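Run log // design_07
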């Protein structure tokens, strides 16, 4: 399922407040580039602040999109980019729903933020996405447990564009150094590994329109 975002690209991210913070991020970028797994740093909106070569390689075949490129805002990419399901396996259940649940908590903490408001407006413009956000999430969380919302430690399937690597699992590892936390950032690494079990495909019910399984079709 692809969702279309009608909003505008996030505003340019402000530069770090001090030369020391800028120097830290420059050195942190060098550290990221030494990591063989896709690794990236985001702010509370999921705007991508830093990303390494492995991250860019994983998403190198992503087609253009005005607001949802993975190197610009990872949340928008997961929710709105029509190519996201080609990389992110079990896209709806293991990527979209956890990201929507996380975004709900972001709205509680940063609801005044213009970038957060813009994402919420784009969700509201898609009836299926909005129904999943407002109605489906509580059902899904009750069904799978609160732990499914947590990114750190989650194992999720993906497909690498390199045909030799193909279908893989990744463990999401969330790390935040003291300096990154002070800047309002956190780092995520997708630790790639061979798939240990076949990924199950969600069963779909044909009702004339496609719905997330956790959202009942309207009567």
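design_07 sequence
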């Amino acid at each position: 399922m692809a969702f279309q975002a009608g909003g505008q690209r996030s505003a340019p991210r402000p530069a770090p407040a001090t030369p020391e913070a800028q120097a830290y991020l420059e050195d942190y970028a060098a550290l990221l580039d030494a990591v063989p797994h896709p690794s990236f740093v985001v702010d509370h909106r999921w705007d991508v602040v830093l990303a390494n070569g492995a991250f860019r390689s994983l998403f190198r075949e992503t087609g253009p999109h005005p607001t949802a490129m993975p190197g610009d805002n990872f949340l928008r990419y997961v929710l709105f980019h029509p190519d996201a399901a080609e990389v992110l396996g079990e896209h709806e259940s293991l990527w979209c729903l956890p990201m929507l649940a996380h975004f709900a908590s972001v709205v509680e903490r940063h609801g005044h933020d213009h970038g957060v408001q813009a994402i919420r407006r784009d969700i509201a413009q898609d009836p299926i996405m909005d129904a999943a956000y407002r109605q489906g999430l509580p059902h899904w969380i009750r069904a799978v447990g609160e732990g499914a919302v947590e990114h750190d430690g989650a194992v999720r399937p993906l497909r690498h564009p390199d045909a030799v690597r193909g279908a893989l699992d990744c463990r999401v590892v969330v790390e935040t150094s003291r300096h990154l936390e002070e800047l309002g950032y956190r780092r995520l690494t997708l630790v790639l590994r061979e798939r240990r079990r076949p990924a199950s495909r969600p069963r779909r019910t044909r009702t004339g329109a496609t719905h997330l399984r956790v959202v009942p079709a309207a009567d």
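The longest strand covers residues 167-175.
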